[in-house]
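ugh ok so i messed up the first submission bc i forgot one of the chains. this is the corrected input, ALL of the components this time, i swear. 921 residues overall. if the numbers dont match what u have on ur side tell me asap before i send this to the collaborators (the ones from the other lab, u know who)
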Amino acid sequence: MMTLESKMRIRSPWIMHFDTGSCNGCDMEVWALLTPRYDIERFGAMNRANPKQADILLITGPVTKRCEDRLRNLYEQTPEPKLVIACGDCASTGAPFHNCYNVNGGVDKVIPVDVYVPGCACRPEVLIDALVLGLSKWREKAAGADKEAEG
Amino acid sequence: MGRATTIPFGPQHAAFLEPLNVTLTLEEEKVVGAVLNQGYNHRGMEHALSLDYRKSQYISERVCGICSFHHSTAYCQGLESIYGIDVPERGRLIRTIMMECQRLTSHLLALGHIAESVGYENLFMQCFRERELVMTLVNRISGNRVHYSMNVAGGVKRDISPEGLKDIQATMSRLRPRLRELHRVFSRDRTLSKRTKGIGVLSNQAAREWGNVGPVSRASGIPRDIRQDGFAAYSMVKFSPIVREEGDCYARMMVRMDECLQSMDIIEQCLPLIKDGPVAIQMKGHPKGEAYSRVEAPRGELVYFIRANGKTALERIKLRTPALMNVASLLAMLPGCQLADVPTITVSVDPCICCTDR
Amino acid sequence: MNEAGPKIERNACLEVRKRTKEMVEAGARMIAIVALEREDGSIELIYSFDRQPGIVDFRFQILPEWEVDSVADIFTGALTLEREVVDLFGLKYKGIPPGLFLEAGKSPVAPLRRRPAPAKGGDEDG
Amino acid sequence: MDLLAYALQVLTVIVAPLVVGLAMGMDRKITARMQNRRGPPVLQPFYDVGKLLSKRPMLLSELQATFAGAALLFHAAALALFVSGSDLLVTFFVSGTGSVCLVMGAFSARSPYSFIGGQRELLAILAYEPVLFLVVLSIGMRSSFLVGDIQGGLLHDLPLVLLALVPVLVVLLEKSPFDVPTAHQEIISGPYVEYSGPYLAILEVARWFQLAFVFGMVTLFFWSGDAVISIAGKLALAFAALFATIVIDNASARLTRENMVSFMLIAGIGLVAINLLVLFILKGSI
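and heres the new structure output, hopefully the right one now
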């Protein structure tokens, strides 16, 4: 059932970007998303930079040891329903940095991840695709959460 | 009020692209103390780079995504000087062109970032719009937007076709009027100069003491540009370092803006110099010896120290990135400024935290 | 490259200030402090300076448990470079706190040391 | 008062904030177009509010929610008073109370960013409220304090007073150069930083009510005997004011607190004073 509520939800994904030790390649592409060529404001997305007001966390980087607690904290501060997108290879699996001693090797080692974005660095087009995929997942997730609340 | 409050700035903050934490002590809104907390981005690249010298070119690009080509160039140059070989001229010119392209993207990012930090959304968007021109250009040449993967010890592994050279020329001609327009806005806009002029002054003396490098030092009147040493093909082109004396955010911003125009000049000087020939030469055996290698990355002097002992693992590889020196000097600029100026000052040194922390 | 490296000298830890001062007074800019662990477990420190037209450096070798003099008051920018060595090699610098890069309790200690410091009888802590 | 007029007023109080919401959507679209972007759909603000209402509530303190509700209540009351044609001065003070509630909500959150945001919001109130007050005063002196009695002539007589409303709108719409209280890059979003989900939606709607009141003051400047022309003119005037703020936003960086206060007070009060002085010289009376 597509309620008015969930319709509005998928039309207004507010994002928050957090760099947990990436090489900046993906971060630049996340910023490029906001700018004229890719402009994700078309989908109603806004960069809020505030976990309390965000719906979607865009996480880049393999999660260094020092970022770990901070990331968990941010995740907890984000109100439900929320979505985590791991941007790039290193956020997904830690790939380019798998030999490094100070990384956790992927966002999913710390917080649950909904969408994995491949690429090193991930291209903005793929990020948009991930966002759209995430929104459809979000719809399911929200429907599930609503049912839970009712049940 | 007179009562001091402490607020954390970052590691996740709207003005910062990357995790840097500045803990500010405020009196009302005046900053009376600042503590830098780094290390949010420390992955241990020096260890990873030393594992296998043949794979390190790949990893050296991943030290920093904004100046990836400079990192891999510095690494490859280091190996080349251990082997004692000279890269063919065509390879050196291609390296120079790619490095200048990357400088363009990096400086436009920094400029847009400064505009964003003072809430000048429109200018931020314009910077990124022009930046996309260069991004798509390098994408057409190298097949990648961020990590070009074109370097190899001994030269470059990807040649630029004649069409590619024409493409570069055409893009530069398209870019030039747009950058001139940007230059006009950055230098003349009244609200922007009100927020940047006289803010975050770093004196010449302080810049020398903190060992600042790159645009930050040149904005404080230190005429040092590693490109003058003539690595890659810089000995074949004419340019002079851009120096300003004020040492404030405005000067740092304008040095970057002028360097964008300079980069285009260098690229256009390089294009006619390219002649047919090999782009790389093969090297034999494992490296043995030690070398310093320096390049002028967009943020300043990037130093690689490599010591190899004839095995696949390098004995030691040490990176001294430009942002490490520049970010530290924030401590000299922040105390005494207003809270509103903290993002501008921080961003004006172009803090590349992935370089700083590695 | 000198295979043997400089001699392991206690004095070097104190001399570093004098030599840095000479360099800085000659107009050189410190660009890096390179630390590396040698085969025998001693640490080689290389202080590199940019004295145009090229790079000059001085180097010395110490044992990891010796305390090195800080040069941060001679060249302010050296502070971060020293903190880096403290973190990555577990060296002791006079008055320089650890924790620039590494998170205590989570990150490995002195990650760039190849092996734990060789046991030195009873004179080390514990 | 007959029932029809009453129903019309109730309808206006409900519709006006929705129109403001639509205007916010247009604002975002126009801003995006000016920045060479495509921009969000015009209905985006409604999607945002709808989404925020569906989020799970999270609060730092109960007071926060109370103040958010109070802000909504006062702003709505101000608009209702305005629409029902009562005294402009009373309306002004009720609206001002609503703004103070936002500040109190920010202070009650006990977070440094929220606290600084509250302080800055307070400063912004000190900067724009005097100007707004003078505008109210000059409208009242020229025509009438009772909104219902104001009929025409204002645009002709008080053009500079209308101009003085533009910087006020810049502050209220949170646009550079005077978006100091909510400076995104400095203190994330100032007083709103600790609000989330439904409570943020309440504040957003409260803001729509507040803007509806201020835009309402702008529309007072146009009046015509013909109802259709009157409404079309009023909307056009409000849109022109909005457009002016968008242009200013896109051509300037954010200024500092000191700049904001001094500009608002000098330029705002100056414009009103000059207008009244000229009017006095020309007509012999205000």
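quick check: The domain at 4-357 of chain B is CATH 1.10.645.10 (Cytochrome-c3 Hydrogenase; chain B). that seems consistent at least. Chain B has a mean pLDDT of 86.
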